[in-house]
Amino acid sequence: MTDTAPLATHANEAAERTAAPSDADVHAHVHEVVEASKTSFLWAMRLLEKPRREAMYAIYCFCREVDDVADDPAPREQKFAELKRWRQEIEQLFAGAPKSLTARGLAQPVAAYGMAKEDFLAVIDGMEMDASESMHGPAMAELEQYCDRVASAVGRLSVRAFGDHGARARDVATALGQALQLTNILRDIAEDAERDRLYLPAELLDAHGIDSRDAKTVLAHPALPKVCADLAEIARKRFHEAETALMDCDRHAMRPAIVMKEVYRRYLDRLIASGWRNPHERVNLPKAQKLWIALRHGLI
Question: Among candidates 185, 177, 181, 178, which has minimal Cα distance to 157?
């Protein structure tokens, strides 16, 4: 769902283990990954005080790197081996002995904000779903599980970094994670088809008479806009659930979540207005509008 990069080489891994990198090395690595990504989330992360911002950078760096593994054109077995190494890295992180630069960057945030190991492992589970190349019109239940792993689990880590540990903040993470991921799926249909991925759920494809599960065939089907419109309605409901849960949260702490909600809700509105007449045309927002959203909602 995001930009790709080559898998880390074993030589680089060995260098990380033997060179005993300094805090400056860790900081530089995390910032390099985040800045290179040009992620929309950067606008929201910059709203946080420095320690919490650094925690979010480290979380994003982890997500970026495991996502790159899933998206890499390497053989499936190699991707699974790399994701297994990441599982071991998370186990070492929670045992107090992180090895890689990224895991070292996570050590202080995990300790300071009480992040859960199962959420990091859930993200890896989601990347294994992508690496397995099984995402070809999944059942709705499987799609929801995928969204929970690759997006809501990240949200559960993030709200800890934001500073709201309450049950309703977790509800925001669950609902908003689903909303953001479904919006990304609807934005990236053509890009995903090029990677032979089709995230649109089987129930909606069947309901509109699309029998094929070949991504490019579905992309060209005249009923595609109806499928997308139905999935967009589910995304809208998740945005509404997130907004309702946010009413019971520390809104100052949850500013980054509010900003991302506003940005992605506008993406969804533009997609709905486009009617998916040209799924190859990726919807975006001008930088000035993202900045306005960040300023408006970041000063709560």
Answer: 177
